[in-house]
Write a structure and sequence with these properties.
Blueprint: H1 2-14, H2 20-29, H3 41-58, H4 62-68, H5 73-81, H6 100-111, H7 115-134, H8 137-148, E1 154-157, E2 173-177, E3 180-191, E4 198-204, E5 213-219, E6 225-227, E7 241-252, E8 256-257, H9 263-299, E9 301-302, E10 305-306, H10 311-339, H11 345-370, H12 381-390, H13 399-411
Helix pairs in contact: 1-3, 2-3, 2-9, 3-6, 6-9, 6-10, 7-8, 7-9, 9-10, 9-11, 9-12, 10-11, 11-12, 11-13
The protein binds flavin-adenine dinucleotide (FAD).
Length: about 425
């Protein structure tokens, strides 16, 4: 309900001119790659809001945010005003209460405006959902409203210098001392790290392996919490990535999500949705790249004709469109399975993340190739989409780990 009101207001604002991206978006909407095909009227409505926001508030700045490594916090808060700060968080704590499929549709659309910024919003949403779902009523009401408005920003802290793919081997320790845990250790590659306010930290309260892991919510300003230098990255430059360091950080026991030992399960449940979200961000980048390639083939002439009249390039464009639609169907199918709580959801989310992030990277790469030398220039958006989605094959579980999860589900049956 909160959504309809926000949608209506935003739809009115979105009726104004968008510029280049909107023109491209309209062309896509009339074609076989139309991302609104098969959606309900309500879904089409908030998808349009997200496309409008992407075109108006993000696309004009995406190159500058990348170049100058700007974390656009004010834009994030504007996105939150449309309900994008807690898309699948329950409405009683400020969330939009939408489904996983709805969320995927929104992230796909937003990502056409700036993939890196949207990917951060997706991580923030994942953290907010973890607190909403596994937190007590007190924790939900304490943290979720300011996360949904993005007044406060969140980071997800699982990876450590010595534990990446083997996340259950993490070493950050939390020893109970009265009403607090004393946290020691460090996390690597934390998205938003240093600039965010709320850290959802997986740490060891018990013995080795996944069952010894708990999940604590840590607030910026806690004595003993510090950050490493900002990492220099290939893409995802509109969001900072830093190490997060804990030195005798006292975290109230009241900030633990779930029971001791449930942290790894909570972290993995967060990631199931996270994988759909990150795959959706890849879809948006690939969608934008297909439109850019389509336009370039039409405008650029070689051998006396537009590139578009070359059958080889026509076939490659057709392949890109086919792969995009296939990837989108995979992602939406997995989102639906997750929403329904189906047993096959974990494997389907992994399959969708594997397939969509690989296929979408290939699509962006082919789109860049179609631009020739221009595609390699920073004046052309296609190179940024390519750089921004490369990391989607690595994080939230590498695509090798996705294969492990799918194989495990097949062989354990
Ligand atoms: C920009 C960026 C942002 C990130 N944001 C976050 C964040 O917000 N929070 C967070 O917790 N983490 C984050 N990460 C960390 C990310 O999730 C990890 O980098 C990822 O899980 C891989 O871990 P690793 O880098 O240690 O690689 P490793 O685990 O060392 O793997 C190296 C390579 O070996 C492969 N490999 C490992 N084991 C196997 C196996 N058994 N079989 C086959 N292949 C295998 C991997 O797939 C990979 O290709 C981020 C990373 C990056 C780059």
């Amino acid at each position: 309900m909160a959504w309809s009101g926000r949608c209506a207001a935003a739809a009115l604002r979105g009726a104004r001119a968008w510029g280049r991206w909107q023109a491209l978006g309209r062309r896509g909407a009339a074609s076989c790659i139309d991302p609104s095909a098969g959606l309900t009227e309500e879904q089409k409505e908030f998808q349009k809001v997200a496309f409008d926001f992407a075109a108006k508030e993000m696309a004009p700045h995406m190159a500058e945010w990348d170049e100058k490594e700007i974390f656009p916090v004010e834009t994030l808060r504007k996105a939150a005003q449309l309900g994008f700060g807690g898309i699948y968080v329950k409405p009683d704590v400020g969330g939009s209460g939408l489904s996983r499929l709805d969320t995927s549709i929104i992230f796909e659309a937003l990502s056409t405006g700036c993939t890196s910024t949207t990917a951060y919003i997706s991580i923030h949403n994942m953290c907010a959902w973890m607190i909403d779902t596994f937190g007590s009523e007190e924790q939900r009401h304490k943290f979720c409203p300011s996360l949904c408005s993005m007044e406060k920003l969140a980071s997800y802290c699982l990876t450590e210098p010595g534990s990446g793919s083997d996340a259950a081997s993490l070493l950050t320790s939390a020893r109970r001392k009265g009403d607090a845990y004393v946290l020691n250790g460090s996390k690597a590659f934390i998205s938003g790290g240093g600039d965010t306010d709320v850290y959802v930290v997986m740490c060891r309260t018990g013995g080795p392996g996944p069952k010894g892991i708990s999940c604590l919510v840590l607030e910026k300003g806690t004595p003993g919490l510090s950050f490493g230098k900002k990492e220099r990255k290939v893409g995802w430059n509109s969001q900072p990535t830093r190490a997060v360091i804990f030195e005798d950080c006292a975290v109230p026991v009241a900030n633990r999500l779930g029971a001791e030992g449930q942290g790894f399960g909570i972290a993995m449940k967060g990631l199931n949705g996270g994988r759909i979200n990150i795959a959706s961000c890849s879809l948006g980048a690939a969608h934008a790249s297909v439109l850019l390639a389509q336009e370039h083939l039409t405008v650029r002439k070689q051998f006396g004709e537009p590139l578009a009249s070359n059958q080889y390039l026509q076939f490659r464009l057709a392949e890109m469109a086919t792969r995009l639609v296939a990837a989108r169907l995979m992602v939406r199918n997995a989102a639906q399975a997750l929403q329904e709580g189906r047993e096959d959801a974990v494997a389907l989310c992994s399959m969708a993340k594997l397939f969509a992030t690989d296929e979408c990277f290939a699509i962006c790469n082919q789109a860049l190739q179609m631009h020739g030398g221009y595609g390699y220039l920073k004046d052309y958006a296609v190179q940024q989409f390519l750089r921004d989605i490369r990391v989607h094959q690595i994080l939230e579980g590498t695509n090798e780990v996705m294969r492990m999860i799918v194989a495990r589900s097949l062989l354990q049956e």
